[in-house]
Amino acid sequence: MDDNEKNLEYFKNLKYHVIVKKHKNKYTLYIPELSLFEEGNVFEAAYKKLETKKEKYFLQMIEMEAQDEIIEPSHLSIKNFKRLLRGLIPFFIKLFVTMAAVIALLALIDDVSSTFKYIKRASKKLSKGIESRQAVDSSFQDINIEQWVFRALGAKERYANKRKLLDELKRDCEIITPASVYDDAHLADYKPELAFDYTDGSFWHSTSNTAYLAIDCKIPSRLQAFKITSRHDIPGMQSPDKIVIEGSNDNNKWEHIYDVPEIETGQGETRVIYIENNKDYRYYKFNLSKWEETSYISVAELAIYRKKAADASANNSK
């Protein structure tokens, strides 16, 4: 079936596995393929809420155009089933700890109480407290599971896009290794070297909405492309909106090379930009800016590239 035909009706007609657990008079219903669950004292009501939650999940995935990421019943392997089922472990641990605490409290009440009526009244109060605590825990667990699903899908898509960009860049270009890097200003623990350490787990951070990162190549090289990656721990709100590239051979007189007037980089996203440059420079300066004056700029990774030697020779001979 084509992706266009995989609409809400298509997914609603799929028959998913529903695991039902009952503890005392409370039902827990869980769909392992989708990591969705619901609780309730009445089975029919809990099932209806689970169906509503499932439909909402499908609508969100369809809006994101991520229908292919929805796990269908026939595609669920035993390994994935066990992995998804383990998502309920924290919930049951919380439930066990809560029940153990309640039992201990009941034992203490039994020791100090002189009448059965008092014990019964206290037990009812504790029972209400347990139900309230379980409802809160269930709510947080539900949110965590949904966030995990969308984060996993987003990470998978970002990884695939990044892999494609890097494969093309590796095919056409070779990296220019900086001899040194510097900037105009940065927060104390976020030096410019962190943008050139070949890992997106660290980052450079500016002190305002305009800043620059400068690179000393030691030997003059012809910049033809660069790669910039935003921080993966926050949305891409600190990525630069505009980049102006300059070149110099004395680190004093700078010549304009290329403008990137508008650049959008999402959370943890990598962008590869090819530029037009017909001259070799020893120094390159990336002037970064944000539209908002109150914004800061951060860069997880910045790398510069030149054309591969064979390609460069062919271009020079033309």
Which characteristics define this entry?
318 residues, alpha+beta, Jelly Rolls, five-stranded antiparallel sheet
Question: Short description, anyone?
Answer:
The chain is of the alpha+beta class. Helix content is 39%, strand content 25%. The protein is built from six helices and 14 strands.
Per-chain topology:
Blueprint: H1 8-12, E1 19-23, E2 26-31, E3 36-40, H2 43-63, H3 78-85, H4 89-112, H5 116-172, E4 173-176, E5 180-183, E6 204-205, E7 210-221, E8 225-229, E9 242-248, E10 255-260, E11 270-274, E12 281-289, E13 298-299, E14 301-307, H6 309-317
Antiparallel strand pairs: 1-2, 2-3, 4-14, 5-7, 6-13, 7-12, 8-11, 8-14, 9-10, 9-12
Tell me about this structure.
The chain is α+β, with helices and mostly antiparallel strands and 318 residues long. The protein has two domains: 3-166, no CATH class; 177-317, Galactose-binding domain-like (Jelly Rolls, Sandwich), CATH 2.60.120.260. Helices cover 39% and strands 25% of the residues. It has six helices and 14 strands. The strands form four sheets. Strands 5-7-12-9-10 form a five-stranded antiparallel sheet, with no helix packed on it. A four-stranded antiparallel sheet has the order 4-14-8-11. A hairpin with a 2-residue loop joins strand 1 and strand 2 (26-31). The longest helix is centred in the middle third of the chain and has 57 residues, at 116-172. 21% of the residues are buried. The model is unreliable at 135-142 (pLDDT under 50).
